[in-house]
Amino acid sequence: MPSNLIANLNEKQLEAVTTTEGPVLILAGAGSGKTRVITIRTAYLIAEKNVRPHNILAVTFTNKAADEMRERIFKLLTNVKISSNPLISTFHSFCARILRREIEELHEGYTKDFAIYDSDDSLRLIKSIMKQVNIDEKTLSAKFVQSIISGAKNRGVSVADHLLEYVKTDKLNLILRIVDAYQNHLRKANALDFDDLLLKTVQLFKNNDLVRARYNELFKYIMVDEYQDTNPLQFALIRQLTEKHQNICVVGDDNQSIYAFRYADIRNILDFEKHFPSAKIIKLEQNYRSTQTILEIAEEVIKHNQERKEKTLWTLNPKGDKALYFNARDEEDEARFVASRIKEILGENPGETIAVLYRTNAQSRLFEEALRRENIKYRIVGALSFYQRAEIKDITSYLKLILNPLDDISLERVINNPPRGIGDKTLEEIRQVANANSVSLWEAILLITEEKIPISSKSKKTLETLRNFRKLIESLKIKAKELKTSENPVSDLLITILRETGYEKMLIDSADPQNEARLENLNELINAAFSYDDREDGLREFIDHAALTSTSDNFDELEKVTLMTVHSAKGLEFSTVFLVGMEEGIFPHIRSASSDKLIEEERRLCYVAITRAKKHLYVTHARQRRHFRETYANEPSTFLKEMPASLLEDISEINSWLSTIQSQKDDTYNRRVNVQTYDSLDAILEFFKQKKSSLVFQDDKTNSETKQDFANSRHQTINLPANSQLESNPTANQFFPGDYVIHKKYGKGLVLRREGTGDATKLTINFPGYGQKKIIVKYADLKKA
Q1: Taking residues 552-561, what's their average pLDDT?
Q2: Alpha-carbon distances of 363 from 331, 353, 359, 580, rounded to whole Å
Q3: Which residue is catalytic, options 225, 254, 533, 541?
Q4: Handedness of CA 261, 266, 267, 273 (dihedral sign)
Q5: Beta bridge partners of 87
Q6: At residue 385, does pLDDT exceed 70?
Q7: 563 - beta bridge partners?
Q8: Is the residue at 655 inside a domain?
Q9: CATH of the domain at 37
Q10: How far is the C-alpha of 45 from the C-alpha of 451, rounded, in Å?
Q11: How far apart are the first and last CA of the chain?
């Protein structure tokens, strides 16, 4: 069996699989077969090293990755008799599992039946609190408060410390007030938010030596996938679990660390040897996905990063074609080109998988429209995931409430859904009763319906409506207990909820054309629940699964054309990739240009984009784009300039940036343009053609002749009115569109536009990292670059 396991591994993969003792860092380059290595390593531990499966823990970030890993491992162990299973889990599911057993050891009042609030539940709670304390969302965004809470928890620090270090705001006290109420509500509702799952587990292990020791003894071999994406809290958890047995194997690629905005810390992987001094480093550098050309382009880009571990990908795949480069006139021309080329590709090979990758979601619109015009089917990754859809959240909220009536967020969602005459006024009075008596909303309803506490709107109709709601929930609780011994306890309960609450009837009776899709989604929810019917605690596991499932788990590979951000593309691969919008301010994003650290993150993101391609890579950018109805010249991306020109084939329909630099004979100039400067002469020419500026372009001239005219004339005096005051300020006559200048504050920039004369001369200058600035020359102290 072991020989079969390792038969087809390359030398470094074999070393990674068979090095089982002590700390191991597997630096797995893009497409190097890391998932295969992790799964075979797990099977090898069991089949060859006789490790008991339940002593193995493998942790990853998505349910999809965990499911895939689990399936592969069990397939490898088909002929091996095992008495238990290794634990393959996401970080959050692992922590939920621990807390279901141990949370009472925290002594914070939580019980093992705690509810899990997902992001939507958390946001609803914050909005509810803000409404109670009369804080207008125009003054303070609930989503902003939510991000503050999440950021603090993931960093393992207090909200106050997080705010002082990371966020500039004058609303510190207001936020702290909301956060305090938020945490109090979670405790009273016996609920944890998504980030609490990690935080409370780390706190549990930190404060309880016996519990920590027990899990150290249980998990003798630990593996962590995508280690470069771990945040401070996840890192702390790993350290706690490896105190006794340091058989920790982490797999990752520092070149693909792209989640700093989620507080992922690249230092975790870069400093692994400092944290585990006896660590062995194994590099997986053979790529099985891409052509050698694609790998060389990616390597040329990423090598400009300082914060990285040295490794060079190589492949036995064919060298492959050059990357195809297209310099579009504008963003519409770029989208038209991409759609038309995709149509050609699918016409020749209908089975080809194609991705259009962009830096931000805002870029998708034009590509969607262009693909629709070509009648090309596509899908966008990033839409609402299945478990985030309203109808799914509604029904799972009923499930949550049945298991935990103290869950106020779920109660608020379902109390008048379907509409049953319990309006906002009644709900607000229930809240007041709950707050006044320090009880949950459900307990407040019990007090009101038993007439122990009066409410101002108490009428026979209101009381009857609340009593009917109470009877409904209590009857569903009874039904859930009765169904526990049935053949299909979870799926039958879902069907019961749909019918007895009137939710199904509401959708059927409504004329809304979207309700057919909603009913189909609810049918799929029942299908999902069916797989939990044979589990001992199936209902609880199903609810946890719904709360823990993320957007990235719902990628559907059926559509051949996919539109997505580069972040969404992580972990995927496509035959052909279109990397679009490769311009300064777009990719790298304008926000990132203020620091080397952020630029390096953007460069890693570009590396991820390039290495998604298996056979063909297209790189596109536009000379000009509209921004607030104005058209501006755009510089090619720094990352585009870092790609070797010799590996790019220019298929532009205009005289492009690439053709300009490739035509230069001076190698020194080539290096200067390619790496150090921001060259966009063609963009400037096109910009002024569009704006019909004072520079005259004659239609019968070729682009190259026009460029030469521009080069020859841009330092000469432009014809000015007779009353020009230019002579009174000689400095103003030094700078023209196309010039590079140095500014004391903003550094090096490219002159895009010139307005006015004499002392009133103004320049519009694009400064990478700062954007476009309009500057009066007289007061700017500009110098030629």
Answers
A1: 63
A2: 9, 21, 8, 9
A3: 225
A4: positive
A5: 57
A6: no
A7: 356, 380
A8: no
A9: 3.40.50.300
A10: 63
A11: 67
Q: Which residues contact 769 (CB under 8 A, 6 or more apart)?
A: 590, 593, 594, 746, 747
Residue type present at position 124 = R
692 and 575 housed in the same domain: no
Residues 568 and 641 reside in one and the same domain: yes
Residue of 612, 615, 623, 754 marked catalytic? 612
452 catalytic? Reply is: no
> Catalytic annotation on 137?
no
Angle at 196 between CA 251 and CA 134, to 5 degrees: 135
Q: Where are the beta strands (DSSP E) in 253-393?
A: 280-284, 323-330, 354-358, 379-380
Alpha-carbon gap, residue 765 to 738, rounded angstroms: 10
Neighbouring CB atoms inside 10 A of 687's CB total 21
> Any catalytic annotation for residue 35?
yes
Q: What is the DSSP letter of 115?
A: E
Of 225, 236, 237, 218, the closest CA to residue 73 belongs to 225
* Catalytic residue chosen out of the listed positions 18, 19, 35, 183: 35
Q: Kindly give, in sequence order, each residue whose CB lies less than 8 Å from that of residue 364, ignoring residues fewer than 6 positions away.
A: 358, 380, 563
Catalytic residue among 228, 242, 256, 565: 256
**Could you give the percent of the chain with pLDDT greater than 90?**
56
Determine which one of 12, 34, 322, 604 is catalytic: 34
- The H or E element spanning position 715 is none
In single-letter form, the type of residue at position 672 comes to R
Is 196 labeled as catalytic in the residue annotation? no
Query: Can you state the angle between helices 232-241 and 142-155, rounded to 10 degrees?
Result: 30
Q: Which residue has the tokens 């809290």?
A: 233
DSSP state of 674: I
Which of 36, 190, 488 shows the shortest CA–CA distance to 496?
488
Q: pTM of this prediction?
A: 0.74
Nearest residue to 613 (alpha-carbon basis) of 553, 662, 562, 554: 562
CA distances from 340 to 52, 109, 175, 345, 374 (A): 56, 61, 50, 9, 7
pLDDT tens by residue, 248-289: 999 999 999 999 888 899 999 999 999 999 999 999 999 999
Catalytic site includes residue 70: no
Q: For residues 193 and 208, what is the distance between their CA atoms, to the nearest angstrom?
A: 22
For residue 467, the domain's CATH number is 1.10.486.10
Alpha-carbon distances of 678 from 190, 270, 292, 585, 750, rounded to whole Å: 56, 31, 28, 12, 8
Q: In degrees, to the nearest 5, what angle opens at C-alpha 63 toward C-alphas 612 and 487? A: 140
Q: Tell me, yes or no, whether 297 lies in a domain.
A: no
- Measure Cα distances from 745 to 732, 760, 767, 769, 773 in Å: 19, 21, 10, 11, 11
Do residues 586 and 508 both lie within one domain? no
Domain final residue pick, 189, 217, 240: 189
Respond yes or no: is residue 100 known to be catalytic: no
Q: Which pair of tokens denotes residue 551? A: 């957007």
Chain-centre distance for alpha carbon 368:
21
Residue 170 lies in domain: 115-189
Question: Which residues partner with 376 through β-bridges?
Answer: none
Active-site hit among 118, 195, 196, 226: 226
Mean pLDDT score, 698-727: 37
Does 527 fall in a domain? Answer: yes
Residue whose token pair is 């001992």: 536
> Does residue 409 sit in the same domain as residue 536?
yes
Query: What does the pLDDT look like over 629-661, one tens digit per residue?
Result: 456 788 899 999 999 999 999 999 878 888 887
514-529 tens-digit pLDDT: 777 788 788 878 888 8
Helices (H), 389-423: 390-403, 408-414
- The string of pLDDT tens digits covering residues 281-335 is 999 999 999 999 999 999 999 999 999 999 999 999 999 999 999 999 998 899 9
Assess contact for 53 and 218: CB atoms under 8 A: no
Domain identity same for 614 and 505:
no
Examine the domain organization and report whether 441 and 536 are in the same domain.
yes
Q: What's the total number of domains in the chain? A: 5
Do 30 and 65 lie in one domain? The reply is: yes
**Owner of token pair 């009042």:** 109
Q: Let me know whether 395 and 378 are in one domain.
A: no
